[in-house]
Write a structure and sequence with these properties.
Elements (H helix, E strand, L loop, with lengths): L2 H10 L1 H11 L2 H4 L5 H12 L1 H9 L13 H19 L6 H21 L1
């Protein structure tokens, strides 16, 4: 499964969406000063952690040979492209949490490129 497939799985799971919306209305979650996206993720990992773990495990990483000198660049590029795709297709626009994922992936790519030299 691609990371976009995982995002679509979460987006299309009506029962899960209804659960998160219901939980977010509770005082315990309303007191937390963070973005709605981060609040939703906290609820998912707290109450549906096994499901989230299964989804994470289902992500197909690119096939690379660890001995290949170019493996780090390929994995880093994949991470940047994946983060950009998730950010661009998210329903919440300009969410700091998501853009942080993009900048983090870009930083990882820079480290991977340094390791090649």
């Amino acid at each position: 499964m691609s990371p976009v497939d995982v995002a679509n799985e979460l987006r299309n799971n009506v029962e899960l969406q209804e659960f998160v919306v219901s939980e977010k209305k509770k005082d315990e979650w309303q007191r937390i000063t963070t973005s709605d996206f981060q609040r939703s993720l906290r609820i998912l990992f707290l109450h549906r952690g096994d499901y989230m773990y299964e989804l994470a495990q289902s992500v197909k990483l690119p096939d690379v040979d660890p001995a290949d000198k170019d493996a780090g660049r390929r994995l880093g590029t994949w991470a940047v492209n994946t983060a950009l795709t998730i950010y661009a297709t998210a329903s919440e626009r300009n969410d700091f949490f998501l853009i942080h994922g993009v900048t983090g992936a870009w930083s990882l790519l820079q480290v991977c490129l340094l390791a090649i030299k």
